[in-house]
Amino acid sequence: MTSVDRAIAESLTPLERVILAIIYLMETNRVGVQGSKVFRVLNTYLESQRRDNVSVSSFNNLLKRLSTAGIIRLRTNKKAVNPLEYYWIYREYPESILDAIFEIDGSLKMIRKFL
């Protein structure tokens, strides 16, 4: 983990850190993961923490923000009927960001049990 990884992780909101931890813990090296899978894990995790669920539009906006930052890459499925299946998510940033996220918020390690 570099100081750049830590700076990026610190600049993210807690919800963005959760989303990134889910994406980077899923098998997304070669094949992207559907946004619906990340959304399902995110809301399951938030329910376990007794926090409010995220709406679909808020989730899609957070994905766009992470994509604009260059941390993930989004590919669109224009034929998707369900808004959650509109995006395929790919990693863009090295996996070392995950270590920085866990160093800042160690409680996110429990996300593994929801995958």
What does this structure look like?
This protein is mostly helical and 115 residues long. 50% of the residues lie in helices and 10% in strands. The protein contains five helices and three strands, in the order H-H-E-H-H-E-E-H. The protein has helices at 3-11, 14-25, 35-48, 56-68, 96-104; strands at residues 33-34, 72-76, 87-91. The chain has a three-stranded antiparallel beta sheet. The mean pLDDT is 89.
Mean pLDDT: 89
**Rg on CA atoms, Å:** 13 Å
Strand content: 5-15%
**Low-confidence blocks of residues:** none
Topology, number of strands: 3
What is the H/E order?
Answer: HHEHHEEH
Helix content: 40-55%
For the sheet with most strands, the description reads:
3 strands, antiparallel
CA-based shape: globular
Number of helices: 5
Multimeric organization? single chain
The helix/strand class is mainly alpha
The neighbouring-strand order within the major sheet is 1-3-2
Question: Termini, distance in Å?
Answer: 24 Å
Helices, strands, pairings?
Blueprint: H1 3-11, H2 14-25, E1 33-34, H3 35-48, H4 56-68, E2 72-76, E3 87-91, H5 96-104
Antiparallel strand pairs: 1-3, 2-3
Helix pairs in contact: 1-5, 2-3
TL;DR?
The protein is mainly alpha-helical. It contains 5 helices and 3 strands; from the N terminus they run ααβααββα.
